[in-house]
Design a protein that fits this description.
By secondary structure, the protein is α+β, with helices and mostly antiparallel strands. The chain contains eleven helices and twelve strands. It folds into two domains: 255 residues, no CATH class; 80 residues, Pdz3 Domain, CATH 2.30.42.10. Helix 4 packs antiparallel against helix 6.
Length: 374
């Protein structure tokens, strides 16, 4: 049984136990609602916090949300452009296509990435929803409920504005509310990018993520989180350096791997006609500029990297004019204002076009790269 399968099994067992406990105990009196693979906790304090935050200098908030509206419109245009261009790259040999797949922990994302994915998702979703909530309260749109949730293994927060009041609000106010969340994610992605650029030094090795059982590396004692700095005295600065060096060896050759835990002797094995050590997944090691153990640098970098990746993806794809993303209601609010009821057919057409682009990207990604969890 693979690590991913074990992870999914434990998640299912945990959810079954939680659901059974919720049936035996009245958790609703604590504001906790448990459903299959969904737990929500309403938080009056979060609503109070939104009220206090939105009450700070309304003129500044209005200026900020005017900017987010423009930025969101540009992000929407880029999202559609990206999907269109990526299709061309997927079907041709020109350019570097991006694999487009839904993020499914244990299925499209390996189990060992889940802690970083969860930490990043919590930051991304909370900031997204809080931004929506602040924008709503600035325009005196009531927030009916706010709190935190857990869906399967995805943590986050929710803010539910009064839908009736929202629909009656002027178009610009709607655009302010809808644009706030995606642009908040975009800002976080920019901040984390600056953090990655300034706090981490250039790659100075590779860290090991996955070692095949009974492989030469496994037999030598090399495991996850080990950092390889050199092989037979040759510096290994990046994953590319490691790949080139190992592929230049021959089966039976003895290698000395210099790592953060000392020197390991590994004998190269013949794997289907090519040399291999059994280190299946390895990545660039970017040390923090502070003097900390290598594992601290690895975990800090992975947390920041996943936050950047998910924040940027959420910012762009949330502005797609496709239900249920924010971009769909954002664009429809404008179309409805211009065309009235006649805007409904435009809304439907845009959904069909964007869904086709999105689906085609996923199908072509599957055809081009195969089913390959990251």
């Amino acid at each position: 049984m693979t690590e991913d399968m074990v992870f999914l099994l434990w998640v299912l067992v945990a959810w079954a136990a939680l659901y059974l406990a919720s049936r035996l105990t009245d958790l609703k009196r604590f504001g906790v609602d448990v459903k299959p693979f969904l737990v929500t906790k309403d938080s009056p304090k979060m609503r109070e916090f939104l009220d206090r935050l939105s009450g700070w200098n309304r003129r500044v908030w209005l200026a900020v949300f005017n900017i987010t509206t423009v930025v969101a419109a540009l992000m929407m245009a880029y999202a559609v452009y990206f999907l269109y261009v990526n299709i061309q790259r997927l079907v041709s040999l020109v350019g570097r296509p991006v694999m487009v797949m839904p993020a499914l922990p244990g299925i499209t994302i390996h189990a060992y990435w889940v802690p970083y994915f969860m930490a990043a998702a919590l930051v991304v979703i909370l900031s997204h929803e809080m931004a929506h909530g602040v924008a709503a309260r600035v325009h005196n749109i009531p927030v009916k409920s706010a709190g935190v949730f857990l869906v399967f293994v995805l943590p986050g927060g929710f803010v539910e504005p009064d839908e009736e009041k929202f629909e009656k609000a002027p178009v610009l106010q709607k655009l302010h509310v809808l644009s706030a969340g995606p642009v908040a994610n975009f800002v976080i992605a920019l901040l984390v990018f600056l953090l990655l650029s300034s706090c981490f030094a250039a790659s100075s090795g590779v860290f090991v993520m996955e070692v095949a059982k009974n492989s030469p590396a496994d037999a030598a004692g090399i495991g996850r989180w080990d950092v390889i700095y050199a092989i037979n005295g040759t510096p290994i600065r990046s994953a590319y350096d490691y790949y080139v060096y190992v592929n230049s060896t021959v089966p039976g050759e003895s290698l000395l791997l210099e790592t953060n835990r000392g020197v390991f002797r590994v004998v190269v094995r013949n794997c289907s006609g090519r040399a291999c050590l059994g280190i299946n997944r390895y990545y660039n090691f970017y040390p923090l500029r502070l003097r900390v153990p290598p594992q601290v640098s690895i975990h800090a970098y992975l947390t920041a990297y996943w936050t950047f990746l998910i924040s940027g993806s959420a910012a762009i794809f949330n502005m797609l004019p496709l239900y249920p993303f924010d971009g769909e209601r954002f664009l429809y609010s404008i179309v409805e204002r211009l065309l009235g009821r006649g805007g409904k057919w435009v809304r439907g057409m845009l959904n069909v076009v964007c869904f086709s682009l999105f689906l085609l990207n996923m199908l072509l990604s599957l055809f081009r790269f195969g089913f390959r969890p990251i």
